[in-house]
Write a structure and sequence with these properties.
The protein has helices at 19-24, 43-49, 62-72, 89-100, 174-195, 201-218, 226-253, and strands spanning 6-12, 31-37, 53-57, 77-82, 85-86, 105-115, 118-119, 132-138, 142-144, 153-155, 158-161, 166-171. It is α/β, with parallel strands linked by helices. It folds into two domains: 6-171, Spore Coat Polysaccharide Biosynthesis Protein SpsA, Chain A; 174-253, no CATH class. The strands form two sheets. Strands 1, 2, 3, 4, 5, 6, 7, 8, 11 and 12 form a ten-stranded mixed β-sheet that branches. A hairpin with an 8-residue loop joins strand 9 (142-144) and strand 10. The radius of gyration is 19 Å and the shape is globular.
Length: 254
């Protein structure tokens, strides 16, 4: 295996609306691998037209699905991109330059997060989405965990950063933000129930204030006007709503 060969990895579930633009931005890679998880739309057709290597299956958990995609990559370096993300030309050049002489390890890449066409730079964090992530890594340097929502990641090797951000189209509008909040709190409730440590009402109420402050003040969400306020509200209430869902499900089972 050539150590400077680059594989671009995309994991998708019914992403025909995003995949054409996403994959066209990855043409600079030596290989594109697309993991299709129970797709019933045109995702496979689009991926094949882009010349991608296809891996099809059904995974209940995010971590094993992504680990399967990583294993299917032939390159010594892997660029992991979601279907709702875009790699700008400047980042493509930076990636190719970075891996040419890089020691094994990983690179953190920043995100430019969008709601619709509005770039929202500040206030992200917690379940809402990170401001940066280890998206470029050498084979074996990144392993996903088994948690249902935002699985933990094991990283190995030297840590570095790239300058150019990934364009991330997080939600189409506020309704999408609300729907995602509902999905993620439900998934988090399942994680809590599976762990047997749901927590207490009082502790989750206390977290509201610290999480709001972190999103709105520390992460400067106030600079984004009402979008920043929404991000802070969602971040603050996420643990409490997940706790309530887990507790009510537990009570219903008794």
């Amino acid at each position: 295996m050539n150590g400077v060969r680059l594989s671009a990895l995309v994991v998708a579930h019914n992403e025909e609306g995003h995949l054409p633009d996403c994959l066209s931005r990855l043409a600079f890679a030596d290989q594109i691998v697309v993991v299709l998880d129970r797709c019933t739309d045109r995702s496979k057709e689009i991926a094949l037209a882009a010349g991608a290597k296809i891996l099809e299956g059904a995974w209940e958990l995010e971590g094993p699905r992504r680990n399967a995609g990583i294993a299917a990559c032939d390159g010594g370096w892997i660029l992991e991109i979601d279907a709702d993300e875009r790699v700008p030309p400047a980042l493509a050049k930076e990636v190719l330059a970075a891996i040419h002489m890089a020691a094994p390890g990983y690179f953190l890449i920043k995100f430019d997060n969008y709601v619709g066409q509005r770039l929202v730079r500040f206030g992200w964090g917690a379940y809402n989405g990170a401001s940066a992530g280890p998206r470029l890594f050498s084979k074996g340097a990144k392993i996903w965990g088994d948690q249902l929502i935002h699985p933990k990641i094991e990283l190995r090797g030297e840590r570095r950063r790239l300058k150019t951000p990934i364009e991330h189209y997080v939600d189409r509008n506020i309704s999408d933000m609300i729907a995602r909040f509902d999905r993620y709190t439900t998934a988090r409730a399942k994680d809590l129930a599976a762990s047997g440590e749901i927590g207490s009402l009082a502790s989750n109420i206390r977290r509201i204030f610290s999480r709001f402050w972190k999103s709105y003040v520390t992460r400067r969400g106030y600079r984004e006007g009402l979008y920043g306020l929404l991000l802070a509200m969602f971040s603050a209430s996420y643990p409490l709503v997940a706790f309530i869902k887990a507790r009510l499900e537990e009570d219903a089972g008794h």
